Amino acid sequence: MIHLKSHREIDRLRKCAEFVSRVLAEVAREVEPDVTTAHLNAVAERYFRKHDAEPAFKGYRMGGLDPFPAALCVSVNDVVVHGIPGQYRLREGDLVAVDCGVRLDGYFGDSAYTFAVGSISPEKARLCQVTREALYDGIAQAVHGRRIGDVSYAVQSRCEADGFGVVRDLVGHGIGRRLHEDPEVPNVGRPDTGRKLKSGVTLCIEPMINLGTYNVTTSSDGWTVRTADGSPSAHYEHMIAVRGDTPEILTTFEFIEDVMNVPHTTTYDTYG
Ligand code: MG
Ligand code: MG
């Protein structure tokens, strides 16, 4: 069942969204060669503690696996999602996708961004650019009266036009008083199919896009998802609220972009 949020609930979710957006910007300051992925997580955990906020991923349970051990998922190169931070040292040319979740006052926030470590290959740069554009194409469909399949199709068609592999096995999701709510938001789909969107629907739209095949495998730790062919992967995630014929993007990449000294890519104005 899709839970439609009141204005008051969307206000709460906007606070959660701002929090994860700020965590990712804190992480952005630290991304450089020779830094461990554990260090990125430590920086995030310090920020959570300072603001007395609960990292939603730490202790998260999935199936019979050990609980997720960190505040961030840090996924380097061929790791698609759910990478566990550790002693790996970032290298010039790596892609590092960082995913962050928070629980604040009973509501959740969730956002992800893929960073370049130093200068990266043109193929990786293109992968990141197209994945980000596909995210905004998907968001543009998240308006009253459209369907989930319209969002999915927008993401898929944008990425496949460039020959990239759109991961099928993992999906976006509703968000609210739970981290993962109805509906699922696949990154592949057909227009005018799936659940109908209404004002008050809040979603995490999160394309996971591979330079090669869309097939993925899960490592023996049970969490780490990698591309089956070893090709690099990119992941960007925004939280949005459907509000009439305008999607409101609750998260923002602007704090990250300010840290990186690049122009803002957000294409929609936010309310309030
Ligand atoms: Mg996420
Ligand atoms: Mg998510």
Overview of the molecule:
Helices cover 28% and strands 24% of the residues. The chain is built from 5 helices and 15 strands. A 5-stranded antiparallel sheet has the order 8-7-9-14-15. Strands 1, 2, 4 and 5 form a 4-stranded antiparallel sheet that branches. 50% of the residues are buried. It binds magnesium ion (2 copies).
Q: Approximately how much helix is present in the residues?
A: 25-40%
Bound molecules: magnesium ion
Structural class: alpha+beta
Lateral arrangement of strands in the main beta sheet:
8-7-9-14-15
- The count of β-strands is 15
Radius of gyration: 17 Å
Tell me the layout of helices and strands.
Layout: H1 7-28, H2 37-50, E1 54-55, E2 72-76, E3 79-81, E4 95-104, E5 107-116, H3 122-140, H4 148-160, E6 165-166, E7 172-174, E8 181-185, E9 202-205, E10 208-210, E11 216-218, E12 225-227, E13 233-235, E14 238-243, E15 246-249, H5 254-260
Antiparallel strand pairs: 1-4, 2-4, 3-12, 4-5, 6-10, 7-8, 7-9, 9-14, 10-13, 11-12, 14-15
Helix pairs in contact: 1-2, 1-5, 3-4
The structure holds magnesium ion (2 copies).
Give a quick precis of the structure:
By secondary structure, the chain is an alpha+beta fold. The protein has helices at residues 7-28, 37-50, 122-140, 148-160, 254-260, and strands spanning 54-55, 72-76, 79-81, 95-104, 107-116, 165-166, 172-174, 181-185, 202-205, 208-210, 216-218, 225-227, 233-235, 238-243, 246-249. 28% of the residues lie in helices and 24% in strands.
